[in-house]
Amino acid sequence: MEIFSIKNAKKSFENNLDVLQDISISVAKGEVAAIIGPSGSGKSTLLRCATLLEKMDSGELYYSGEKAAWNNEAGKTVYASPEKLRQIKSKFGLVFQNFNLFPHYSVLKNITDAPISIQKRKKDEVIQEGLVLLEKMGLSDKADAYPFQLSGGQQQRVSIARALAMKPDILFFDEPTSALDPELTGEILRVIRSLAAEHMTMVIVTHEIEFARNVADRIIFIAGGVIVEEGNAESLISDPQNDRTKAFLNRLQ
Ligand code: ADP
Ligand code: MG
């Protein structure tokens, strides 16, 4: 079953043309797809378009078969109604590079705020679930702490818990470890690995190639706003076919 797809996505900025040039990705339930590629290749823009933070110029977007965006007759993207988009936004979670926690909210409030105020779920229930998520993230003792009192790795675990609290069908990660000191990346990669073991559907932009190889079913290599190569994670890394993929992987070694 297809959980998410973006079709023929194109995006230019005023001063930056063709950042995305006809990108299509489809993700099945339980699948883990990793996106790799050089800096500036359009990975964040792609995730921002996928999660409705940025509008595509052209292209389609589907969540569980529901249309979030499609092309009009002129080939320009049209978005669903605000009400429909609100529903669709409950279907996915996004974990940013820089955590993006609310600094003036406690850890528990960061996690429970959206399920209570946006999803209108019962407060007691959401708080109970929030505490369970904190336990799962190894942060049971941090419920009342504020983000500034936590390490980067702890803040990122809170932001993963916050995304999970919405009970999303799919989670997107944009370089979740790149703002962390090297000794803290392991704890985040372990959390993502455990989510993969629970068959969480995920799209992970990462430059941790070994991690991508281990955790992902599929790797998508993007350069210059196009998908240069994609395939089975193990074979794309051990036996890349395209010269640009080879050059990119060689540079990382
Ligand atoms: P990546 O995440 O792969 O490093 P990005 O998607 O962040 O790449 O950026 C791709 C290109 O789009 C870059 O050249 C970047 O400068 C440009 N870009 C991204 N966002 C904007 C924006 N809001 N306005 C103008 N240019 C942008
Ligand atoms: Mg980026």
UniProtKB/TrEMBL annotation:
InterPro entries: AAA+_ATPase (IPR003593), ABC_ATPase_HisP-typ (IPR030679), ABC_transporter-like_ATP-bd (IPR003439), ABC_transporter-like_CS (IPR017871), MetN_ABC_transporter-like (IPR050086), P-loop_NTPase (IPR027417). Keywords: Amino-acid transport, ATP-binding, Cell membrane, Membrane, Nucleotide-binding, Transport. It is a peripheral membrane protein. Gene3D superfamilies: P-loop containing nucleotide triphosphate hydrolases. Residues 4-249 form the ABC transporter domain. It comes from the Bacteria. It is found in: Cell membrane. One of its GO terms (molecular function) is ABC-type amino acid transporter activity. SMART domains: AAA. Belongs to the ABC transporter superfamily. This is ABC-type polar amino acid transport system, ATPase component. It comes from Flexilinea flocculi. The lineage of its organism: Bacteria, Bacillati, Chloroflexota, Anaerolineae, Anaerolineales.
